[in-house]
């Protein structure tokens, strides 16, 4: 991108990008923390999640405010306009990812008070790995305005949905077989539900990246239109 | 880049068709092989940096460039199918069909009424009742009637700048042209007068085909249905205004409208 005649305007857009990167970094830490807690059946790693969420929420408000200022003062057009629009939308999804991790962190406290589940839940592990890498790649694609990477992340969300369905099926069977563990299984389903939503939010962010790159809105159109 | 936006008007529903128009002044090219179709009863904006040729293109439509010494014009411009560059064209008659308003309001030093009646009288209208009716209609169309109806005999020069510009627009539309050319119509006006002119442009487009040249990109974005971006005498991009300002196809357009030109 060539430099803007107004260096100040360029600086404001750079600052905006930096704030989104910072917010994304915090959300990534939240997600890593709950995944670690769930993998080790330990609530401690997820302890900072709530405090991180407060910081995420504050950043969302600041970024929204910065976007409104840029719109009011600079009347952005074309690529600049699409950047501001994408950021306004992306931060809503990032904030919701933060909310989901907070929910999982709370669930983890209840879960870890119960006897540890020793039988492996490969689908849960798969979901955690997949949504972590989806979020990391979505944030990276946002910084680089990399639409191919974004498209790839959108496609990867399907595997998360499949793993979620498989996990629910497995857990329903497990509930019938071991009703004494019903509460644990029930809580895990709620965690899995949150991971599935996190995948959706990461996918949404990638849809905004495609809009940012091409000026084309690929939401609600199926993948065919994104290609 | 895929899915190139298309112009959402039927070429058959156009007022002006420009084909391969090149204009030079003393051998120096001002426009190079510009082709575009201007839609009927819509607002079309020409934008671009100084010297891009947008005013030359505008002035070609009513043969204002003829007045400039050393001008050479090649190519074709058709107004509803009629060649308007042909030597036998009656330029005065052409300018009745294609009216023009300039950057600086230029009311004649006469009364408000006489300014608007001027063109009508030239056309031979002398019946006072008919003149009054037409003048009122033109002033109402230009959203000026309520402000001047009690001072029609006052000198036009006593009006504010914004009122003068609307008076000039009333004068231009009094003779009911088919196309109205506006060359920076609001750049000498304060923000409120500017908004009034912009509002007026939108209303006039219901009855006229309007072409506006402006340095103010936000103004082009606000008032026009279609926008043409010119650069160094060439037409770089011509699209629906919504498309041009959100997803321009050409890099030069993007750089210019985001302020990265220079």
Protein traits:
heterodimer; A: 227 residues; mainly alpha; 6 helices; 81% helix; elongated; B: 262 residues; alpha/beta; 6-stranded mixed β-sheet; 4-stranded antiparallel β-sheet; 10 helices; 10 strands
In summary, what is this structure?
By secondary structure, chain A is mainly alpha-helical.
Helix-strand blueprint:
The complex is a heterodimer of chains A (227) and B (262).
Chain A: H1 7-40, H2 49-74, H3 78-113, H4 122-144, H5 147-177, H6 182-214
Chain B: E1 14-25, E2 28-39, E3 43-47, H1 54-60, E4 71-79, E5 82-83, H2 91-97, E6 98-101, H3 112-122, H4 128-141, H5 145-148, H6 161-174, E7 179-183, H7 191-204, E8 209-213, H8 217-223, E9 226-231, E10 234-240, H9 241-246, H10 251-257
Helix pairs in contact in B: 3-4, 3-6, 4-6, 6-7
Helix content of chain B: 25-40%
Oligomer: heterodimer
Approximately what portion of the residues of chain A adopt beta-strand conformation?
under 5%
Spans where pLDDT lies below 50 across 5 or more residues of chain A? none
Radius of gyration of chain B: 19 Å
Taken from the alpha-carbon principal axes, the silhouette of chain B is globular
Mean pLDDT score of chain A: 92
Which residue ranges of chain B are poorly predicted, with pLDDT under 50 across at least 5 consecutive positions?
Answer: 1-5
Order of helices and strands of chain A: HHHHHH
Number of helices of chain B: 10
Output the helix-strand order of chain B: EEEHEEHEHHHHEHEHEEHH
Q: Biggest interface, and residues per chain?
A: A-B, 18 and 19 residues
Query: pLDDT average of chain B, as an integer?
Result: 93
* Euclidean distance between termini CA atoms of chain B: 24 Å
Task: Tell me the structural class of chain A.
Answer: mainly alpha
Number of strands of chain B: 10
Which strand order do you get reading across the main beta sheet of chain B? Answer: 6-7-8-3-9-10
Distance between the termini of chain A: 24 Å
The Rg value of chain A, from CA coordinates, equals 19 Å
Beta fraction of chain B: 25-35%
Q: Mind summarizing the main beta sheet of chain B?
A: 6 strands, mixed
């Amino acid at each position: 991108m060539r430099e803007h005649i107004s260096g100040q305007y360029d600086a404001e857009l750079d600052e905006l990008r930096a704030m989104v990167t910072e917010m994304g970094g915090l959300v990534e830490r939240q997600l890593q923390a709950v995944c670690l807690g769930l993998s080790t059946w330990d609530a401690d790693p997820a302890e900072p999640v709530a405090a991180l969420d407060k910081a995420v929420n504050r950043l969302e408000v600041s970024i929204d405010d910065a976007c409104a200022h840029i719109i009011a003062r600079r009347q952005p057009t074309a690529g600049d306009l699409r950047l501001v629009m994408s950021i306004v939308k992306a931060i809503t999804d990032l904030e919701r990812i933060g909310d989901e991790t907070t929910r999982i962190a709370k669930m983890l406290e209840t879960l870890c008070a119960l006897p540890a589940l020793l039988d492996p839940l490969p689908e849960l592990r798969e979901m955690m790995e997949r949504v972590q890498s989806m979020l990391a790649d979505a944030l990276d694609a946002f910084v680089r305005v990399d639409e191919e990477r974004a498209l790839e992340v959108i496609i990867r969300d399907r595997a998360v949905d499949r793993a979620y369905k498989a996990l629910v099926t497995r857990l329903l069977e497990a509930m019938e077989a071991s009703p004494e563990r019903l509460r644990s299984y029930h809580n895990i389903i709620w965690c899995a539900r949150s991971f599935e939503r996190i995948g959706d939010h990461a996918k949404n962010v990638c849809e905004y990246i495609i809009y940012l790159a091409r000026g084309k809105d690929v939401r609600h159109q199926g993948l065919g239109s994104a290609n | 880049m895929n899915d190139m936006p298309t112009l959402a008007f039927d070429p058959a529903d156009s007022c002006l068709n420009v084909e391969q128009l090149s204009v030079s002044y003393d051998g120096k090219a001002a426009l190079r092989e510009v082709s575009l179709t201007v839609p009927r009863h819509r607002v079309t904006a020409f934008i671009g940096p100084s010297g891009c040729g947008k005013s030359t293109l505008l002035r070609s439509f009513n043969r204002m460039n003829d007045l400039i010494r050393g001008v050479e014009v090649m190519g074709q411009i058709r107004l509803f199918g009629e060649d308007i560059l042909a030597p036998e064209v009656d330029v005065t008659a052409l300018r009745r069909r294609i009216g023009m308003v300039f950057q600086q309001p230029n009311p004649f030093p006469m009364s408000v009424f006489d300014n608007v009646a001027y063109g009508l009288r030239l056309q031979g209208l002398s019946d006072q009742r008919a003149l009054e009716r037409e003048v009122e209609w033109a002033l109402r169309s230009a959203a000026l009637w309520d402000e001047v109806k009690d001072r029609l005999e006052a000198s036009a020069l006593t009006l504010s700048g914004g009122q003068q510009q609307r008076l000039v627009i009333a004068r231009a539309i009094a003779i009911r042209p088919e196309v109205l050319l506006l060359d920076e119509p609001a750049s000498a006006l304060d923000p409120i007068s500017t908004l009034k002119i912009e509002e007026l442009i939108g209303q006039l487009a219901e009855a006229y085909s309007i072409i506006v040249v402006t340095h103010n990109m936000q103004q082009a974005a606000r008032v026009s249905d279609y926008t043409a971006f010119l650069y160094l005498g060439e037409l770089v991009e011509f699209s629906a205004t919504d498309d041009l300002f959100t997803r321009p196809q050409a890099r030069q357009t993007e750089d210019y409208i985001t302020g990265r030109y220079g």
